[in-house]
Amino acid sequence: MYNLNQFTLRNMSECGLALRQLGQNVTTMEEAGKRIINYLYESLVDDKTQNQSCALIRLFKTHSYGDLTPKLQASARELLGDGEILPDLKCLTLLATAGEQPEWNSRYESRGHQAIPLANENAIASIPMVSQLIHQLGLDPGTVIKPDPSLMVDLEQQMYNVFHIPDALGSPYIPAQHEFVIPFNIKSVVGFGGILPSGNIFVMMMFLKVAISRATVDLLRPLALSVKTALLPFDDGKIFVDSLPVTSVGDRKIEQLNSQIATLTQLLDVSEQVTFVQSDRLEQAITDLQQALTQLQTTQTQIVQSEKMSALGQMVAGIAHEINNPVNFIHGNLSHLDSYIQDLVSLFQDYQTEYPDPPATLQAKLQAADLPFLIQDLTSILQSMQVGTERIRQIVLSLRNFSRLDEAEIKEVDIHEGLDSTLVLLSHRLKAQGKHPEIQVIKDYGIVPLVECHAGQLNQVFMNILANAIDALEESNIGRCLSEIQQNPNQITIRTFMIDANWVQIAIADNGVGIAECIRTKLFDPFFTTKPVGKGTGLGLSISYQIITEKLGGKIVCHSTIRQGTEFIIQIPVQTEESEVRSRM
Questions:
Q1: Is 559 helix (H, G, I), strand (E, B) or coil?
Q2: Lowest mean pLDDT across 119-133, 179-193, 561-575
Q3: pLDDT band with cut points at 50, 70 and 90 for residue 318
Q4: 494-501: Cβ within 8 A, 24+ apart
Q5: Hey, what long-range contacts does 367-376 have (CB within 8 A, 24 or more apart)?
Q6: Looking at 23-37, 131-145, 350-364, 515-529, which range is the least confident one?
Q7: Pairing relation of β-strands 503-510 and 565-573?
Q8: Residue 86 in 3-state DSSP?
Q9: Residue 530 and residue 537: Cα distance in Å, rounded?
């Protein structure tokens, strides 16, 4: 059983082998044709209903009027009408038929189709499907009506094809729409045929209750040659069961053998072609599946990473809020505390002026307390508390600016504010640590407008690139003493400027170890990392690339030279595409 909606290369080979063997152990072409028709009718099934896929399947062959049986000649005369009929008049003769209706299972009961005279080209045109198949075979209708023996050898070795009507409903090739297509639920039609050594053509038509794809039709092409192989032994021999036996002469036998060889050669060629096509499709399908799997894995990881960033952002926003309230309370009261202390100091100084000689016990306590130092140190403590609380407020503000959870939609963003906030959060890594001196950050900010984007996403890109730059500088310090590092101090340079009226560029460069070409080509690939296990996921730059190119509609590239450093260049539009469209309206 074969399901046409899932017809495979193996199905094609099995079906072709079975068809070629159906011409054995029979004595007429009609018997071989009946076997072929019944095999296809019973073997092609609908996988959903397990019923036959074919409503009707028929096999025709052109035949000279003079060689027809008396009954078939009468059928041809009935269609042709009065007038003389020449013996060499070609008739499209029904060899075998099978279908859902009882009358469709006997060629004797298929009135109007037993022998159709092809008196002229108009007669062929009146049978649209046969006419179209002849056209697809590359034949001239006149060649079918009057075959030229000198051309038949070459034509017979070249001509075979498949005729496909993907949607039978409303098709001009099937005139009987209300009588046949609609009541019997015909979805598609497949026909195939070829030329026999005698110059006659055979045509098989399958009226299907399932719609089939072009890929399936391509797999059916070799079946035309398999059918031809089964019919070849009877060409110009005994065609019908009720016809007189014909003795095949030697030359005719040689022609049949040559034709069989040519047909088998064609069958091998077309089978190889189909195998190549199916192999290419399979390889493409494997490639597509691999790409889909990679994309799925990337998307899944990005979703997880996005959820992590969202959760982290919510936590940061919550912590920032909880810290901000008491810090503001402390910072706001420090100015009042400073004022109160100044008043007390002034009052104490006035008291000393009015009473320069306090009692001895009080004088001893004043000396023990070192009052001038207390007054001086208290002022310093208040100043340091003000600096500390202001620092905490700046860090909290940077955290809020970095996460920007309160800005879920696209807004105008100050990229310098985003860069500065990111640097504040990385300040602990930029400071001098042990034997490593401070990393210098050189800001070369140009005059740039506000940019429409998701601030949190853009800040995430800044964080990934700046953190990688710090990693590269720390790696470059390995094996170098402090004096060597000071001769070529660690630097990160950030430049911003307008490319034109519509685009802004941000360049972030370091003078670290640099990146090799073989690694640079993979920088933006998901999961690619050169960092030790546990230190990097290989997603930072991949996500950054996606944010810049897909979500912000920009560009990001990396330039690097070994032992000289690396520069990431980000270019983003000032306005989103939607804003540009609105501004033009």
A1: strand
A2: 119-133
A3: low
A4: 494/419, 494/441, 494/442, 494/443, 494/444, 494/445, 495/444, 495/445, 495/446, 496/415, 496/416, 496/419, 496/444, 496/445, 496/446, 496/448, 497/446, 497/448, 498/446, 498/447, 498/448, 498/449, 499/571, 501/574
A5: 375/345
A6: 131-145
A7: antiparallel
A8: coil
A9: 10
Mean pLDDT of 187-205: 86
Please name the residue ranges forming H helices in 50-201.
Answer: 70-80, 121-125, 128-136, 141-145, 149-156
521-556 residue pLDDT tens: 888 877 667 665 555 556 678 888 888 998 889 999
C-alpha of 509 from chain center: 35
Q: How many CA atoms lie within 13 A of 531 on its CB side?
A: 19
The rounded radius of gyration (Å) of the Cα atoms in the chain is: 45
284: which 2 tokens?
């493409």
Residue 110: helix, strand or coil by DSSP? coil
Task: Return the structure tokens found at 19.
Answer: 């068809």
pTM summary value: 0.49
| Partners of residue 43 on adjacent β-strands | none
The SS3 assignment for 464 reads helix
Q: How far apart are CA 184 and CA 163, in angstroms?
A: 20
| Confidence category of residue 405, pLDDT binned at 50, 70, 90 | very low
